[in-house]
Design brief:
Arc Repressor Mutant, subunit A, alpha+beta
Length: 258
């Protein structure tokens, strides 16, 4: 289900609670937001030289593609939600956002924890509303990111619906209504990387969702997104994410099954 709030579309991919004695990972980057709350202290997330403790007094939001590490010294009940939201929230730089329980509200926290135990449509709608509230507590300065101009955005949207195909730059320039010479320069200037690299990254991002939220085989996923075979996918996946697709899937399974 997707919910539109303030012009932004949200999708909740997964939510739940689990007791875990060990939570030690060197990089849990993924293409979606994380919402975390633990009923006991003892867990910590790390990003570079920054560390943030999880516990009963703090809710933590982690933006997409944040390459954070984890450590644990207790066995709490870990509540988590994985979700995506369109617009500028998807472009926020890797970091941690924390909010106190008084800031969030005890009643809202209790409701969120109860809602993630269920899967009804009405409850998911309320959960999305509560997540939008959490996002609204992020300081505005972090949400003021450059927007992509419409001609380039049109091409990006087109490519995101054709991730299994390749297109000539000339065709995409015509789609954007730009000259063949100016299109690649404008794309790189606005997006921050070349067209081919961006499209490859989007394909790997889509594969991440399949690995985490479907039981499809890696061979099937490779074929669905235009990779020649599993080995071609594995090589590119490791290039962009540092680990292979099988390990990426295994890590998430471990987190939710312990």
């Amino acid at each position: 289900m997707s919910l539109y709030g303030s012009g932004l579309a949200m999708r909740i991919w997964y939510g739940g609670q689990v007791q875990m004695a060990q939570w030690h990972y060197d990089n849990l980057a993924a293409p979606y937001w994380r919402w975390y709350w633990n009923d006991k202290a003892g867990w910590t997330v790390h990003l570079g030289d920054k560390s943030l403790a999880l516990g009963p007094d703090t809710v933590v939001l982690i933006p997409p593609e944040t390459p954070f590490a984890t450590s644990s010294a207790s066995n709490p009940t870990h509540h988590y939600i994985e979700f995506t939201v369109d617009g500028t929230f998807q472009a926020i730089e890797p970091q941690f956002f924390s909010m106190s329980i008084p800031e969030l509200g005890k009643a809202r926290l209790a409701r969120i924890c109860k809602l993630i135990e269920t899967s009804s449509l009405a409850n998911e709608f309320q959960l999305q509303q509560d997540l939008f509230h959490c996002l609204s507590l992020i300081p505005q300065a972090f949400k003021d990111v450059d927007t992509i101009h419409s001609p380039i955005n049109k091409v990006m949207q087109f490519l995101n619906t054709h991730l299994d195909q390749r297109f000539e730059s000339e065709f995409l320039a015509e789609l954007a209504g730009l000259s063949h010479d100016s299109f690649p320069r404008l794309f790189r200037k606005q997006v921050g990387e070349g067209l081919q690299a961006w499209h490859q990254r989007q394909r790997i991002r889509a594969v991440c969702f399949e690995l985490h939220h479907s039981d499809k085989s890696i061979e099937h996923i490779a074929d669905a997104y235009g990779f020649s075979d599993r080995y071609h996918l594995s090589k590119l996946f490791k290039k962009y994410r540092g680990i292979g697709p099988a390990e990426f899937r295994k890590r998430r399974y471990e987190q939710h099954q312990l």
